[in-house]
Here is the input.
Amino acid sequence: MADFDFDAVVVGAGAVGLACGYALSRRGQVVAVLEAGPIIGEGVSARNSEVIHGGLYYPTGSLKARLCVQGRRALYAFLDAHKVAYDRCGKLVVATNADEVGRLDAILDQARTNDVEGMEQISKARALALEPDLACEGALISPQSGVFDSHGYMLALQGEIEAAGGAVVTSTPFEGASPLEGGGFRIRAGGAEPTTLTARLLVTAPGLSAQAVAATIEGFPAAEIPPLHYGKGVYFRLSGKAPFSRLIYPPPIPGALGTHYRRDLGGQAVFGPDLHFVDEIDYSVDPARAGEFYAYIRKFWPGLPDGALAPDYAGIRPKLHGPGEPQPDFRIDDASLHGLTGLVALFGIESPGLTSSLAIGEEVAGRLRV
Here is the structure.
């Protein structure tokens, strides 16, 4: 680390930024993770479903397909090693009418192409034997899917970085960087005590701020910064006993996986997220959206009682596509794209970014040849 304050600086202490810091730390790098907010993981990483995805849907050869499966396998091992709570409850992708049954065939083919273990198509009778309150015409079962304590996971990543001699620094917004002659970066950090530090490597993984952060890096070509779209999703919580033990997903909708059911680690039932595009960051939940939730949920759970849903929380996903546009892959941009040696910039890391995070970290470390 001669002549540098740190081997690497990572911008953003959400799950993906911390996983990048962890991957670099494992390779002997001394890492500083800079987080603008007062605590780790309070952005995109705190406002999702905490689902561990199997990797069923993603296009052949995509980063999402490869990194979701690799990340999920690594994640269960990491959670076991660090005693972080999870429930490998499995998932049913359900066809709620005859027209959707054919879509299950395509999802099953894609899941097997993606090397997802244990996938199986099951009959209506078997699905109802597993989940008696379910309404469906058939289903896929994904035994590797689950839910977990994402904040406990992020705390474990922070602990690993710090144990390796690194630092995770909150309330320290990244304000820009300039390449140094001979390699490396001079990085400006704000907050109560603004400072400048140097690092050989720079990784930007700040979720909703990815585009704004890239624009503050000297020499980063503006044409390589993709557009940002805010994809908002709200969640409603069920009052009463959770009806299903497994995750329940209808087939995906354009641009997202659709409103689904999960039983959280506390045993409560949560439905969401839906998807609507917004122009600003706003985490309010409009109670009036419950009407759409009742209609949608009753397709697979007709027994949902009136008045049983309460507004819970909302998340905003950093989407690279707008309404009606195809959903693109993760963007993990290295010097071959933007021309800045020693920099990897991440854009559009939404679902399945949480599941994929350990594999994304490994991918970033590999791109940096560490």
Observations:
- The longest helix spans residues 63-81.
